[in-house]
């Protein structure tokens, strides 16, 4: 029997893209059915990428039987049930719309699109497809971090009371070196925006989902610290090599560095900061920053309510800090302050499927949970969450932050 033959109990997945996100999605599709079995078993049967050699290497690495170089033929392949989009943002809309039109379920990496218009078209297409049992979801994987899912559960349960304030930071530092090349994430045409869309999108989605509030107003600023960088020769994930003088495309008009390599212009933000208000009366402060030296992947969220607070940092992802304002004394001794919940118990979200308490999970598990939730929803014929509508909602906030930062209108300059 062919390994790719469709069966009523198999969900055949085609992965579009094979870089950092492609790899972690491929691993998640492989792992999810072993730990979160349902009647529907997913398996990646095709990987698609423009570089056939690299895609074939990837396929061999992850045991994927087919390689394709044209996403259109993948989308129209009758054996494929799910299109998993792991390519830069400028390609999301066209692929997702074609996949939904062809009757495929879609899982799409974040941010949903590079602009509001595209996100609106994607959400509308997903809403119509959903009426026919074809589902779409956007990859806000951090929702699937057990500690954050626990925080969401506690807040939905009323454990924090009335939510009054929130602060989110997503800090990385992989761009600090000025010789780091001009990769696609620094090109507005491919990525839409910089730290804002890449990191800020996660923050916005999490703050809204965990708190149950929607951001309804912002005041923002953004900055590009290094505006010229060497052109990239090759890149993968967050690593890249610069073009050398020998391979450079420099002409007499092109700016070059000391070695003669061509330089290009960074067209996205390196960092963005915004104040926010929510539809339920809370206030928030947020920062997305790729120049925060010392922080590799510090996604932090703190939420304060009338009955208590939660605080989380992805660099300690198995922990949730919790302050209970209702029990600050024991036998008349003041014991106020945050306690550390070690989120590894079977009663915590997702944990029952894994290891005995205390045996901690990591980054890749958030993607395994994402796939498990997606497959469970498809198996139950119900729309998965987060939906493209949720992706659009985040896009509205990203758009507002960009507009506010560009307008600079509420800014009060000292010593003008
Ligand atoms: C790069 O900043 C990146 O890989 C993001 O694109 C991901 O969404 C984030 O999870 C990790 O960092």
From TrEMBL:
<dbReference type="GO" id="GO:0016491">
    <property type="term" value="F:oxidoreductase activity"/>
</dbReference>
<dbReference type="InterPro" id="IPR000683">
    <property type="entry name" value="Gfo/Idh/MocA-like_OxRdtase_N"/>
</dbReference>
<dbReference type="InterPro" id="IPR036291">
    <property type="entry name" value="NAD(P)-bd_dom_sf"/>
</dbReference>
<dbReference type="GO" id="GO:0000166">
    <property type="term" value="F:nucleotide binding"/>
</dbReference>
<dbReference type="InterPro" id="IPR055170">
    <property type="entry name" value="GFO_IDH_MocA-like_dom"/>
</dbReference>
<dbReference type="InterPro" id="IPR050463">
    <property type="entry name" value="Gfo/Idh/MocA_oxidrdct_glycsds"/>
</dbReference>
<feature type="domain" description="GFO/IDH/MocA-like oxidoreductase">
    <location>
        <begin position="150"/>
        <end position="310"/>
    </location>
</feature>
<keyword id="KW-0520">NAD</keyword>
<dbReference type="Pfam" id="PF22725">
    <property type="entry name" value="GFO_IDH_MocA_C3"/>
</dbReference>
<dbReference type="Pfam" id="PF01408">
    <property type="entry name" value="GFO_IDH_MocA"/>
</dbReference>
<feature type="domain" description="Gfo/Idh/MocA-like oxidoreductase N-terminal">
    <location>
        <begin position="11"/>
        <end position="130"/>
    </location>
</feature>
<protein>
    <submittedName>
        <fullName>Putative dehydrogenase</fullName>
    </submittedName>
</protein>
<keyword id="KW-0560">Oxidoreductase</keyword>
């Amino acid at each position: 029997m062919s390994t790719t033959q469709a069966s009523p109990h198999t969900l055949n997945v085609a992965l579009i893209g094979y870089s950092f996100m492609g790899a972690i999605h491929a691993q998640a599709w492989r792992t999810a059915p072993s730990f979160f079995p349902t009647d529907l078993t997913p398996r990646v049967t095709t990987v698609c990428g423009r570089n056939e050699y690299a895609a074939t290497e990837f396929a061999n690495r992850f045991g994927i039987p087919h390689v394709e170089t044209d996403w259109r033929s993948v989308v129209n392949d009758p054996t494929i049930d799910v299109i998993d989009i792991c390519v830069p943002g400028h390609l999301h809309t066209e692929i997702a719309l074609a996949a939904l039109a062809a009757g495929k379920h879609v899982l799409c990496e974040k941010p949903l699109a590079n602009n509001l218009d595209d996100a609106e078209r994607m959400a509308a297409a997903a809403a119509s497809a959903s009426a026919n049992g074809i589902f779409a979801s956007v990859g806000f994987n951090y929702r699937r971090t057990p500690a954050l899912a626990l925080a969401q559960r506690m807040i939905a349960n009323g454990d924090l009371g009335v939510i009054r304030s929130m602060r989110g930071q997503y800090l990385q530092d992989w761009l600090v070196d000025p010789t780091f090349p001009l990769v696609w994430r620094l090109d507005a045409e491919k990525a839409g925006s910089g730290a804002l869309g890449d990191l800020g999108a996660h923050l916005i989605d999490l703050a809204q989902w965990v708190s149950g509030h929607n951001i309804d107003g912002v005041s923002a600023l953004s900055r590009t610290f290094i505006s010229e960088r060497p052109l990239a020769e090759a890149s993968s994930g967050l690593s890249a090599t610069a073009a050398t003088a020998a391979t450079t495309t420099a002409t007499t008009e092109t700016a070059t560095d000391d070695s003669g390599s061509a330089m290009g212009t960074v067209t996205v933000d390196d960092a963005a900061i915004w104040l926010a208000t929510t539809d339920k009366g809370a206030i928030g402060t947020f920062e997305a920053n790729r120049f925060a030296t010392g922080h590799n992947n510090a996604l932090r969220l703190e939420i304060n309510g009338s009955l208590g607070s939660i605080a989380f940092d992805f660099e300690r992802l198995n922990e949730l800090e919790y302050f209970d304002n209702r029990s600050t004394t024991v036998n008349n001794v003041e014991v106020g302050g945050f306690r550390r919940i070690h989120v590894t118990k079977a009663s915590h979200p997702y944990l029952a499927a894994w290891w005995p308490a205390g045996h901690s999970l990591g980054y890749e598990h958030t993607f395994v949970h994402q796939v498990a939730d997606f497959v469970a929803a498809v198996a139950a014929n119900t729309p998965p969450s987060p939906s493209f509508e949720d992706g659009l909602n985040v896009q509205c906030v990203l758009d507002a932050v960009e507009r506010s930062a560009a307008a600079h209108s509420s800014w009060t300059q000292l010593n003008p």
